[in-house]
Amino acid sequence: MALWYIGPGVMPRLIGWEKPDDHLFKINTDGSSIGNPDASGSGGIIIDHCGNFVTAFSRKLGNTNCLTVELWGIRDGLAAAINLNLHNKDVLEADSAVAVSLINLPPPNTHILSTLLQMLDGYIGNSGDQACASGTK
């Protein structure tokens, strides 16, 4: 599947989504905040290796910032995968480079998001997966 994205002052470019390898599931997550901070929410979808819909999830988060929203989307995607017994069978894609780096190299316990990051670490440990996300923002 490929889409053209055209934004203000942005040249059109081809973007797309690729199915995961055979017998794997892909978790795609995203979050949005109208302001930073302001009204926010996150969500995502799980698709199988044939491109078939497995499940979707979303969460209204109230007034918070973009990074918190992205992390909640990742957390809810991993929780959904665990609830569906997709242990060691999933690939996570998120578009926040900052969120991905915080998961891969957790900050000290004094970080403002340390509780949420510890929850994510627990989900990653329970699923047997590594935080293998691709961040672009």
Automatic annotation (TrEMBL):
A Pfam family for this UniProt protein?
A: RVT_3
Q: Where is the RNase H type-1 domain?
A: 28-117
Q: Check the record and name the Gene3D superfamilies matching this protein.
A: Ribonuclease H-like superfamily/Ribonuclease H
Family matches, as InterPro entries = RNase_H-like (IPR053151), RNase_H-like_dom_plant (IPR044730), RNaseH-like_sf (IPR012337), RNaseH_domain (IPR002156), RNaseH_sf (IPR036397)
| Source organism superkingdom | Eukaryota
Instruction: Offer an example of a GO molecular function term for this protein.
Output: RNA-DNA hybrid ribonuclease activity
Protein name, as recorded:
RNase H type-1 domain-containing protein
Specify the species: Corchorus olitorius
